Amino acid sequence: MSDLLAARSQMAVSLAFHIVFAVAGIAMPVLMAIAEGLWLRRHHPVDLELARRWSRGVAILFAVGAVSGTVLSFELGLLWPRFMAFAGPIIGMPFSLEGFAFFLEAIFLGIYLYGWERVPRVVHWLCGIGVAVTGAASGLFVLTANSWMNHPAGFRLVEGRVVDVNPWAAMFHGGWSVECVHMLLAAYLCVGFAVAAIHARELLRDGTNLFHRRALTIALLVGGIAAALQPVSGDASAKLAARTQPAKLAAMEGQFESEPAAPLRIGGIPDERAERTRGAIEIPGALSWLAYGDPRATIRGLKAWPREDRPPTAVVHVAFQIMVGSGVLLLALSILALVRRRTLFESRRLLTAIALGGWLGFVALEAGWTVTEVGRQPWIVYGILRTADSVTPMPGLMAPFLLFTFLYLFLAGIVGALLRRHVFASPRLPAS
Amino acid sequence: MTYATLVAVALVASLVIYALGGGADFGGGVWDLLAAGPRAGRQRETIAHAIGPIWEANHVWLILAIVLLFTCFPAAFAAIGTALHIPITVLLVGIVLRGSAFTFRSYGLEPGHVQERWGRVFAWASLVSPIMLGVTLGAISSGTLGMDPASGQVRTDFISSWCASFPFAVGFLALALFAYLAAVYLTLETEDDDLRDDFRKRALIAWEISAVLAIVALALARHGAPLIFDGLMRRPALLVCTGLIGLAALSALARRRYAAARWLAAAQVALTVSGWALAQYPAIVPPDLTITTASAPEPVVRAVLEVLVVGALLLFPALFYLFRIFKSGGRREEGSPGYPTE
């Protein structure tokens, strides 16, 4: 494995690990605040128990998210010093803002977790909402930085030197809101469904347990609303990619030829050597229509770029299929649960479907990040700086890659065991 | 004063606050590791109770410092990240293990011995991380991270600049100072006189070890970090002032004036960290990168300063509220309207 590949792999592992905790930090507080809000309204003990249990989950996930996020902020310099020397001033602004949002989030969370008995109840609840809001804000800020790597703006290059930097223009360029909305919805979607999956599994064993019933309802509501909105946001993301990153769109669709009325491919494996995608179901003209609103519009295929400027097509196409497929299944699951809402808790088949399918949100999340990150290759800053040109000269990068991989695998196992025991296990509640 | 200098001041300030808060949290872990005697269990409980609500907020100061560094002094960040890859990686592993182990332990993995094992991980990680933080800062100050004018990259063999006596002296000094701070703070975290005496004894020992290590580091700086050494020698008032405040803290501890000792110890550590920064001013990564040569374009630096001011207006009231809730005597207020104890 080359040092470049080791560095990319370490970054991928770190991001794939951190993103799970980051989305939990964004979306779990919403669930927790809803439960506590319900308790403040109706004083049913099950809501308070839920808020307390979920807050323990937030505590564990937030701590691991905070430290793995710290690792990422250092890794930018450890692995990609030349990228940071170039881009640091341009994208530092959102990271500075994120610093403050994260700060407030840590403070609100500290009060929330340790202040149950110390602050007035409404203040406590407001701190929970504060965690949710600042969590979403810090996510948004980091996303604007990532989105800048896809759509670099806010500076000019003169003879290889960066001039006329405008950090606000770099942050709020044309595409930031599209990526941010897509990712925030993804956070609510995958956390909502994962929590629903866990409680549905408990309901299969303990069907009348009010704790799990209430939990499932809240989680499905949050996940379902996000699932319903996500296709709209996904469509906007694809249209943006068509405009600003045509090579990424071509890779997502396995489109090698430049042609009018390009088909939408469902499934299939792109063969990069033969430059064609095999085994896909093709819907004629649908890609042109989705990308430009015109079924006869011309789509630029990958052959329009020299080979060294193309992203790894097979990875991007397959990841994109997985993301969209998972999203569609989750949307179907949401609609089914909505239609059958009166008999939801009695239907073993539906509960089983939620218990198994709820995890697809995280599958979609990881696949989606694969699409956006691998799809941007070979660039680290699209069209400006190549990933290969920004890696550190440090040799032996295999060692830290393996180190962090094992560390994160190990931690993931522990977190899973802890959550299972202390957050999602059936509580003993007073009969009510 | 230029905008870049102001940002550098903010960067040092966040490092100082990190040392006072986050540093003491690491120090708490060290005392967890060294808990001994008939009250070992209760020492550990007090430590966990003291750092639980605040360590994550304290930790953010380090992230803020890093973000300010890479936004406003990107060349310095790139040079540090490249040449000091190894100690920083170890520091990161320590940070990850410390934070997760502390949380895992708090949320009680059963059976007891598993929980205890996480307690060990928390404690050892709390020991390693401050050393590596100190090694990194010491290596930066040693003046060995020169820039290659042709490529604009740092000249380094990735090892020799940090694997030397001066950086490690700074590493152990950081560890001793953090442990000292923690022990002083902990005297105020308990109502129990015996327990308080345990922490007082530890604070006194840590004070002595810090003093010895500070002198060792200063002596090694003569050859290991000549720039720092000259900078300090040119400012004898700074050295004397730090020493006097240290002695005052020692005397307050000896006379059991714990509240005064807390402020004096904090001032002592704050002066040590800012003295280090002042000694290498205006260099950020000596010898080549200074506040001026490493600075980002001015519009960026100015915008970051504006954000810092607005952010501080939001942040400080919230921080104040957090510390008032958890650090004002630790007692529940009469007739508190919160939730009943679980």
Write the layout of secondary structure elements.
The complex is a heterodimer of chains A (432) and B (342).
Chain A (H helix, E strand, L loop, with lengths): L2 H40 L2 H35 L1 H34 L6 H30 L5 E3 L2 E3 L3 H5 L4 H30 L4 H35 L1 H8 L5 E2 L3 E3 L2 E3 L4 E3 L2 E3 L2 H7 L5 E2 L13 H27 L8 H10 L2 H15 L4 E3 L3 E2 L11 H27 L8
Antiparallel strand pairs in A: 1-2, 3-8, 4-7, 5-6, 9-10
Chain B lengths: L2 H31 L6 H12 L3 H18 L1 H10 L1 H22 L5 H30 L23 H22 L6 H32 L1 H8 L2 H19 L3 H23 L2 E3 L3 E2 L7 H30 L15
Helix pairs in contact in B: 1-2, 1-3, 1-6, 1-7, 1-11, 1-12, 3-4, 3-12, 5-6, 6-7, 7-8, 7-11, 8-9, 8-10, 9-11, 10-11
Ends of chain A: how far apart? 61 Å
Structural class designation of chain A: mainly alpha
**Topology order of chain B in helix (H) and strand (E) letters:** HHHHHHHHHHHEEH
Order of helices and strands of chain A: HHHHEEHHHHEEEEEHEHHHEEH
What is the β-strand count of chain A?
10
Total domain count of chain A: 2
Count of DSSP helices of chain A?
13
Output the strand order for the largest sheet of chain B: 1-2
Residue share in β-strands of chain B? under 5%
Kindly state the mean pLDDT of chain A as a whole number?
A: 88
Radius of gyration of chain A: 23 Å
Poorly predicted segments of chain A: none
Q: In DSSP terms, counting alpha (H) and pi (I) runs of 4 or more, how many helices of chain B? A: 12
What is the 3D form of chain A? globular
Work out the radius of gyration of chain B. Answer: 21 Å
By DSSP, the count of extended strands of chain B is 2
Shape descriptor of chain B = globular
Largest sheet of chain B: 2 strands, antiparallel
**Helix content, binned percent of chain B:** over 70%
Task: Tag the structure with descriptive keywords.
heterodimer, A: 432 residues, mainly alpha, 2 domains, two-stranded antiparallel ribbon, 13 helices, 10 strands, B: 342 residues, two-stranded antiparallel sheet, 12 helices, 2 strands, 1% strand
